[in-house]
Design a protein that fits this description.
Distance between the termini: 9 Å
Strand order of the largest sheet: 2-5-1-6
Low-confidence stretches: none
Largest sheet: 4 strands, antiparallel
Number of helices: 2
Radius of gyration: 17 Å
Length: 112
């Protein structure tokens, strides 16, 4: 099992969710986060004063899937979230040792 974490632009959330649904992934967690990388924030004007916004709004998706779905999941996220501009985001894939569904006690792939 793998955990796929993707940090994307907020306005791409619906497109990514739809793309994942089309390949059979129905469960995910979406978290509103702030961050920056090469994008480095931007300058805004507020009441006549300029200030730098270092952290930009992003959405972090967390998806736990079987090993056989990882490549399709990455492809779906990449295609749906890509704008071709700086700040499109990142995808991280890590190993998951155990998953337990609290309601039924099911474990691992049965609990996904």
């Amino acid at each position: 099992m793998k955990k796929v974490e993707a940090v994307i632009k907020p306005f791409k959330l619906d497109d990514v969710r739809e793309a994942l649904s089309e390949i059979g992934i129905s469960g995910m967690t979406a978290i509103e986060v702030k961050g920056f990388g090469r994008q480095k924030g931007h300058t805004e004007l507020y009441r006549g004063a300029e200030y730098v916004v270092d952290f930009l709004p992003k959405v972090k998706l967390e998806i736990v899937i079987g090993d056989d779905m990882v490549d399709r999941c990455i492809e779906a996220i990449t295609n749906a979230a890509r704008t071709g501009k700086i700040g499109d985001g990142k995808i991280f894939v890590t190993e998951v040792d155990k998953v337990i569904r609290i309601r039924t006690g099911e474990q691992d792939n049965d609990a996904i």
